[in-house]
Amino acid sequence: MYSEKVMDHFSNPRNVGEIENASGVGTVGNAKCGDIMRIFLDIDENQVIRDCKFKTFGCGAAVATSSMATEMVMGKTVQEALEVTNVAVMEALDGLPPVKVHCSLLAEEAIHAALWDYAEKNHIQIEGLKKPKADIHDEEEVGE
Amino acid sequence: MSRLIYLDNAATTAVHPEVFEAMKPYFMECYGNPSSVYGFAAGSKKAVEDARETVAKFIGARASEIYFTGGGSESDNWAIKAVAEARKDKGNHIITSKIEHHAVLHTCEYLEKQGFEVTYLDVDEDGVIRLEELKAAIRPTTILISVMFANNEIGTIEPMKEIGEIAREHGILFHTDAVQAYGHIPIDVEELHIDLLSASGHKINGPKGVGIMYLRNSVKLGSFIHGGAQERNRRAGTHNVPGIVGFAKATEIGAKTMEERAAHEIALRDRLIEGILDRVPHARLNGHRTERLPNNVNISFEFIEGESLLILLDQQGVCASSGSACTSGSLDPSHVLLAIGLPHEKAHGSLRLTLSHETTREDVDFVVEQVEKIVARLRSMSPLYDDYCKNVQK
DSSP string of B139-207? Predict the structure, then answer.
């Protein structure tokens, strides 16, 4: 059911771990629904993402999207990182089964939450960044 | 990885070689329609009637009480809908449990839309219904009690005899979905006061697409599939002769080997349960410890999600299943695990391993080792486990 890329990123996830004293940390998801993602960002003084790590509780797709998202934001500026959308993550993984699309939304949201945390800690504003939702499933479930 | 360890026998089983041999002649040699008049079809007719005898004998019924169907789900649908229809003048209330297979649950939900009322009994933490609650749920309008013989996810065996007695005392029909129990543990419909029973071929090393419904002779029900006089006018459709023959052969082998097979499976089941619980912290057994199917193991692991566990086990050649939402195709984990009181996050981290007579001690030891490794690996990347460890340190 998963593409080879998803299986690769699930079996050999990149950037698993934590960053101590991270510039920004974002946790999204809901254990009740079966997935939680936490993303750690280390951002330098030029607002470039020097390092990015993740920890995820969830299915194969949740782990793979976290892994891919961390790879995609690495080395980017915070502004560029905002352009890493769930669609971009999905495309990079050669697609996800329809029931797993929410995992990619979770990855996008986790990056945004970590950037939001960074912006708050540094009292700056990142153009185009909205305050992340605490639980992305809230809206999704209503919509179904 | 060439080795395959198949531990999903509650999902389906391999056809037994003797079953396959018994079925073969009915495809190309003895292919006549049992309903036909000419002599050529007599062999098919005899095969079906012999099969009916075998099955009847196995559950303590008469041959005229066995109906061949297209499988367990059809039998469940037929039993419940036909009782509802036949008894609607007497009442509109049905009692079942929250842990039934969806073939029963969704049929009951369908009937609710048709104006029937359904009580879904809670279960205790082991997955057993409470008899006092069952008694209290009975109304003058109750026409049917449907409680499964043994649960497909957690393996718990329900108190059939007690339920049967309660049903009989109140003049209520008693149906049981015995799909997981049939061929694995003894069933006697007389002793247990069962009026209707569903079973399936492919769970007992028989073929897929064939099942039975036992219907007590004194109970008159309408047909479910219309269009022919087969099965005493109650189930139309040309007999699936090879399937029926296979079902009977699987029943015969099941009966003959039951005791020995159960002993083998129980020993390995307990080795597997103890092995995992000993080596993996924050794990719990789901379902009753002893009142449990010989081949069922169901364990929840905290801080991890079931689908991830299944994929990694698959990579080691181990076939298993889980009650996590991701494997059910919905946002909710298994209704059975929620009914025994597991919070959502623990239900997401469940693993079901169902053994067979072919499972070996080496298989079990390999799986214990793999489960230990994989759970540790998934926990090392779980933010929930991190949070737990940090809280413990505080």
Answer: -TTEEEEE--SB-TTT-BBP-HHHHHHHHHHTT-EEEEE-TTTTTTS---TTTTT-SEEEEESTTTTS-
The CA distance from B201 to B205, in Å, is 7
ipTM value for the complex: 0.90
Boundaries of domain holding A51: 4-123
Question: Do the Cβ atoms of B325 and A141 come within 8 Å?
Answer: no
Contact A38, A93 (CB under 8 A): no
Query: Please, which residues have CB within 8 angstroms of residue B327's CB and are 6 or more apart in sequence?
Result: B306, B307, B310, B321
Interval B43-54: pLDDT, tens: 999 999 999 999
Token pair belonging to A16: 């698993």
Query: pLDDT by residue (tens digit) across B31-70?
Result: 999 999 999 999 999 999 999 999 999 999 999 999 999 9
Of A7, A55, A141, the CB nearest to B383: A55
Domain count, chain A: 1
CATH number of B5-11+258-393: 3.90.1150.10
Q: Which of A18, A38, A99 sits opposite B329 (nearest CB)?
A: A99
* A140 within some domain: no
Task: State how far the Cα of B268 lies from the Cα of B317, in Å rounded to an integer.
Answer: 19
In angstroms, the CA A101 to CA A86 distance is 8
Would you state the pLDDT for residue B393? 82
B336 touches B153 (CB < 8 A): yes
Domain ranges of chain B: 5-11+258-393, 17-254
Do residues A82 and A112 touch, judged by C-beta distance below 8 A?
yes
- For residues B185 and B255, what is the distance between their CA atoms, to the nearest angstrom? 9
Instruction: Return the CATH class of domain B17-254.
Output: alpha beta
pLDDT exceeds cutoff 50 at B75: yes
Residue A97 covered by a domain: yes
Which of A2, A38, A57, A70 is the best mutation test for B, with the most CBs of B within 10 A? A57
Distance, CA of B273 to CA of B266 (rounded, Å): 10
Q: Please state the pTM of the whole predicted model.
A: 0.94
